[in-house]
Write a structure and sequence with these properties.
By secondary structure, this protein is of the alpha/beta class. It is built from seven helices and eleven strands. It has helices spanning 10-13, 19-32, 49-56, 68-80, 119-128, 143-150, 203-212; strands spanning 39-43, 60-65, 88-91, 103-108, 130-141, 154-158, 162-171, 176-185, 191-199, 215-222, 235-242. Strands 3-2-1-4-5-11-10 form a seven-stranded mixed β-sheet, sandwiched between helices. Keywords: Methyltransferase, Transferase.
Length: 250
């Protein structure tokens, strides 16, 4: 999945996201594992809000996204913040991830891994380039959210320059949500339509994929409150630690 036209309005339509709380939690977890600097990859970096916050904190960030439009937004933000040249941006599919060396950690937020139909390969790729003791911090939407919050619901977002209608359809047989996004520009009258899927993964499936590829799942919490999970948690947040280095063994 790659957001295209939606990239330029992603921040507006995602305005309720608490990036500060997310950043604080991620930085706390990195520090707790002795990672205060070094190379960290943002897998599915989107418009780069978190990527740039971590860059400003002193990490050597690699922002990776399949959407060139998203990466263009990150470049513009980096230039405005005086961070051009301080981070590496790569246009890659996470199922074909290819980095230049090992990384100390990886982050992936706002349900990037729910958009991937082959979770096992995506986890394997994230782990392949990670140093022993490296930390993988990521979130995913829960089955509860897919079935009960997205489900068959429709959401409308109104901004000054555009409107967006987000429609969902939960396919129980294939365990996925079909999402359609329609954007209308007020000034030009242009209309854009995008369609993609989010795939539903339960906790045990995610744990098994991590363990299969050399991670120990240290903790899982609610990805919005960062407190304990409940039956109505809409987002998981995972902290997994890599047990051995693979890239250097090749």
């Amino acid at each position: 999945m790659a957001y295209n036209e939606f990239a330029y309005f992603y921040d507006e339509f995602n305005g309720e996201a608490d990036y500060d709380a997310l950043y604080k939690h991620i930085q706390k977890e990195l520090a707790a594992h002795g990672i205060a600097d070094g190379i960290v990859a943002d897998l599915g970096c989107g418009t780069g809000e978190l990527t740039l916050m971590l860059t400003q904190a002193g990490y050597d960030m690699i922002g990776i996204d399949q959407s060139e439009e998203m990466l263009c937004v990150v470049r513009d933000k980096a230039e405005q913040l005086g961070l051009s040249g301080k981070l590496l941006l790569l246009q890659q599919d996470l199922l074909k991830l290819d980095l230049y060396g090992t990384i100390r950690g990886a982050v992936s937020t706002f349900d990037t891994f729910n958009h991937i139909p082959d979770l096992d390969t995506a986890v394997a790729n994230a782990g392949f380039f990670m140093e022993a003791g490296g930390v993988f911090l990521f979130d995913m939407n829960t089955p509860y959210k897919h079935q009960n919050v997205l489900g068959e619901n429709e959401f409308t977002f109104e901004e000054e320059d555009a409107s967006c209608v987000w429609r969902n359809h939960y396919d129980a047989e294939n365990r996925r949500v079909e999402i359609t996004v329609d954007i209308d520009y007020r000034e030009t009258g242009e209309h854009f339509h995008e369609q993609f899927y989010e795939y539903t993964y339960d906790l045990e499936t995610i744990r098994a994929a991590l363990e299969q590829h050399g991670f120990v799942l240290e903790s899982v919490c609610d990805g919005e409150t960062f407190g304990p999970l409940t039956d109505e948690s809409e987002r998981y947040f995972f902290c997994a630690v890599k047990q051995y280095t693979q890239l250097e063994e090749q």
